Amino acid sequence: MKLDASISAVVTGGASGLGLGTVKALRAKGVKVAIFDMNDETGKLAAEETGSVFCQCDVLSDDSVDAAFAKAREANGQERILVCCAGGGNAIPTARRDKKTGEINIFPSDKFEWVLKLNTVGTFRCVTRSAAGMMTQEPIDGERGVMINTASAAATDGQMGQAAYSAAKAAIVGMTLTIARDLSREGIRVNTIQPGIFDTPAMARATPEMKQALGAMVPFPPRMGHADDYASMVLELARNSYMNGETIRLDGAIRMQPR
């Protein structure tokens, strides 16, 4: 797909981190972008900085997602590109024994479900709405649109305490080919990026020493990934019309250790 001012895109989680890096890369190509994000303040700032449209959006809500797509399309027209970066997780062991008291605690089911709803269901909720919109458009060079979802190295190399996050991201990997097949007759491609250790706002609490140590774990290059590394892959997946139904690891060849 060509990337220019004739194309519109939606980026969920677009106010920070990988999402914001993607917004900047798309805007640099002239693409009209709508930022979907929960945070009103950072969302408006990101939109002003990049010349995008901000649509406050909670991917856990049908009504919120529907309203965000309606606002985005009113401003920019029907999106041909969807990039899903919205997500998050927690770190809770499946079951653990308190070292002092011996009390045994289990992972609360509601907290497990919340991570799946945010990452997997939230992604799928946006995919279905975007697919329906793309299907109303005439193909451009044979395709109506492209979707790029975000998984994680945790999908295959989950560390201790990441049961929910690993399950949620593995589900995104698992549904990639199926959705690509579902939408193939409509000329809509679907791919997933599986990032490793990236320097995002989630790392805000990490000290410089900790970040350096994390980067040193990566075989090559020995550093954490940057948002523009992710954004570069998004651009290639959007442009390359033969990339479909794939999950691509973007991790410097790291394989995560148990902890």
From TrEMBL:
It comes from Zhongshania aquimaris. Keywords: Oxidoreductase. This is SDR family oxidoreductase. It comes from the Bacteria.
